[in-house]
Design brief:
The protein has helices at 12-19, 22-46, 52-71, 83-95, 97-100, 108-144, 164-189, 208-214, 224-229, 233-260, 287-299, 302-310, 323-346, 366-375, 380-392, 415-425, and strands at residues 149-154, 157-163, 191-192, 219-220, 267-268, 350-351. The chain is mostly helical and 426 residues long. Helix 8 (208-214) links the parallel strand 3 and strand 4. The protein starts with 11 loop residues before the first helix and ends with a helix.
């Protein structure tokens, strides 16, 4: 069954090519098509295009379909093009002519749009929640290990003292920036496009304010052409948020892989969180974190994928837009999985508390020792030359009792302030 069926069939190859992976992807969206269809049915009843009995029958049957989706028993067989055709088929099968009325004053275009907006609202809220869980864990780890020093690197060369408190809380505060992107995407998704029909509105006297309130949208996408043009744009906004989180997770996963290596030996994890080698019995590989890194690097390409699909499309609907689902839905599943597994794994992290006892880290303290000379009255440039000479001649003696007190330094992590920044977002 196809909503655009005019009584003749298409070639099977054309059918397969145009439908693509829609049936599988639509299982993620079907719940939201039901929510939108209920709101639409109630609106049709409100303006007199459905009788009260017809409205109640449609809402009742849609509730049953929604229940089957929640249970996981809802399927979209190969005889159906997508979720819309399957849901309408069920309504017609159960309610006859009443079921046929559900498509009054709407198009499959605004059906897809409103389902995607509702889906993205839900998923972005879920991603934000998962990010907050990771954020809280990172701040707790930062507080737990705030006094454990860690080598800081620039150019992968030993640079200055850092700490595990600084490292963990750095990623926590970076997640705040990522959530700003998620919030921006949520605001874009939180606009009701239903009623734009095929992109040019309807001659029926529909009540778009009613459906906006019924589906808990903050506002409408008022201009019907603008509503249609949000197809792809709303997905791209979500992709930027996902990409931003992915960038943070990828960088942290790379740090973890580096720090787990025997050459660094800064951190470790229980055996059950690592994998072995088929021929090297000593190996404890960071496969989980390598996959997080790889998946998150791939996710950072998603905005560009969507941009290339949308590039040079004029206003109005085009079938190219069907392809955005194939990009955004898997991306959402991937970022949620990466957030979940990183949180799960970091709970078991083990920190090496004696890293800086190794003499090779003595030079970490050169800047702090130099600063002591400056505080003693020596001009900075002279102190710098003096310290350089001592290092070159092997006379350098590090000053290890460092004192960093300014906001955001290893001696003043500002964990409360960072937590407050995140709380303000919520």
């Amino acid at each position: 069954m196809k909503l655009w069926d005019k009584g003749f069939s298409t070639d099977k190859k054309i059918d397969y090519f145009t439908v693509g992976n829609d049936r599988a992807l639509d299982l993620h969206l079907a719940k939201y098509d039901v929510i939108a269809s209920k709101a639409h049915a109630k609106m049709l009843g409100k303006i007199g295009l459905l009788t009260p009995d017809e409205t109640n029958s449609l809402v009742k049957e849609l509730d049953l379909i929604g229940a089957s989706i929640e249970k996981g028993t809802f399927t979209i067989e190969a005889t159906f093009e997508d979720m819309h055709s399957k849901i309408e088929y069920i309504l017609v099968e159960k309610l006859g002519d009443t079921g046929k009325k559900i498509h009054t004053a709407r198009s499959r275009n605004d059906q897809v749009l409103v389902a995607m907006h509702l889906y993205l609202k839900h998923e972005l809220a879920e991603i934000k929640s998962e990010t907050k869980i990771l954020f809280d864990l990172l701040l707790n780890l930062a507080d737990k290990y705030k006094s454990i020093l860690l080598p800081g690197y620039t150019h992968l060369q030993i640079a200055m003292p850092s700490s595990f408190g600084l490292w963990f809380s750095a990623y926590a505060e970076s997640l705040i920036d990522d959530v700003y992107f998620i919030d921006a995407a949520y605001k874009i998704a939180d606009q009701n496009p239903l009623g734009s029909a095929a992109g040019y509105g309807s001659s029926f006297p529909i009540d778009r304010a009613f459906t906006t309130k019924e589906m808990h949208f903050a506002t409408q996408k008022f201009n019907v052409v603008a509503a249609q043009m949000s197809r792809g744009k709303v997905e791209k906004a979500a992709a930027f948020g996902i990409s931003s989180i992915a960038s943070t997770l990828s960088k942290m996963a790379m740090d973890i892989c580096l720090y787990m290596s025997q050459n660094f030996n800064f951190i470790s994890f229980p055996d059950e969180l690592t994998t072995g080698s088929s021929i090297m019995p000593h190996k404890k590989n960071p496969d989980v974190f390598e996959l997080i890194r790889g998946k998150c690097n791939r996710l950072q390409a998603v905005p560009n994928q969507l941009t290339l699909i949308l590039t040079n499309l004029p206003s109005g609907y085009h079938r190219d837009l069907q392809l955005v689902k194939e990009v955004i839905v898997p991306a959402i599943q991937d970022i949620k999985a990466c957030l979940e597994i990183l949180t799960f794994s970091l709970k078991e992290i083990r920190v090496n508390e004696t890293i800086l006892e190794d003499p090779k880290y003595d030079y970490l303290f050169s800047v702090d020792t130099l600063n002591e000379l400056v505080l003693g009255g020596i001009p900075f440039r002279d102190a710098y030359k003096q310290m350089g000479a001592e290092i070159h001649e092997g006379r350098f003696i590090p000053k290890r009792d460092i004192k960093h007190t300014h906001e955001g330094s290893l001696g003043n992590l500002c964990l409360h302030e960072i937590r407050k920044k995140m709380e303000l977002i919520y």
